[in-house]
């Protein structure tokens, strides 16, 4: 298991299972169970995904000690504000059935609210209900606003990132502040798997297209949370540590950048 050391020395696995759109209870418990069985120790959920209970159930069924697992969850847009966030975290703890959350994120920087939301997250951190404070979908302008107003900067920023939207500027900005970056939609929601270059490199390294893309993220030191409910893919997405891509191939993938955002843009779109 390869771990990223966050700014406060908490260790976060580089590979976790994303569980967005896992809405079928049995399927979710099964996917998380499978993931833990093949070695995953991190799960990325959110109150918005409405599957925290199932994630908690799978974790308990696994028999793996709680301290060996890393659970990320997020405060949704309509739960934001100071008091509301304290209550949202309480709900997430209850749904997950755990005493603490490893990483708690603001899901989106809701205008007029995200600073107060983050202040509540700082308090949750001081009270040791969460092991690390973080954010998601925060661009530079949101991080700069936080920098002026909070005591402890987020330790992680989770943003859309894949070969078609590489986020180099934002990643550099975060790295300068010792903020780790997690890529959501690391496979571009599956879209990048069809890319001709990715397929060519898969042949060259005797790996699958998904493994090529995920390995590219890891070699850039980005944390990844690919989503799948299929056991063979869950395994494939974790089997990334027995090969290294040459620099020239890393560079070729870097040239696939095309500002190909799939989700909404936190700078300009409403959410
Ligand atoms: P993803 O890039 O992980 O792609 C998932 C798609 O790829 C699924 O359709 C899946 O069937 C397919 N897939 C996965 N592994 C495969 C493989 N080995 N071979 C072929 N196809 C494969 O996209 P995602 O689910 O949107 O993102 C991953 C996680 O990121 C989510 O589950 C969630 O936890 C998180 N997320 C966070 C935000 C946010 O706003 N913070 C937004 C979206 C997603």
From the spread of the alpha carbons, the general shape counts as globular
Q: Can you list the ligands bound to this structure?
A: nicotinamide-adenine-dinucleotide
SS-based structural class? alpha/beta
Overall pLDDT score:
97
The string of secondary-structure elements, in order, is EEEHEHEHEHEHEHEHHEHH
| Stretches with pLDDT under 50, minimum 5 residues | none
Percent in helix: 25-40%
Distance between the termini: 35 Å
Number of helices: 10
Note the quaternary state here.
single chain
Most strands sheet: 8 strands, parallel
**Rg result:** 18 Å
Question: What spatial order of strands do you see in the largest sheet?
Answer: 3-4-5-6-7-8-9-10
Q: What amount of the residues lies in strands?
A: 15-25%
| Extended strand count | 10
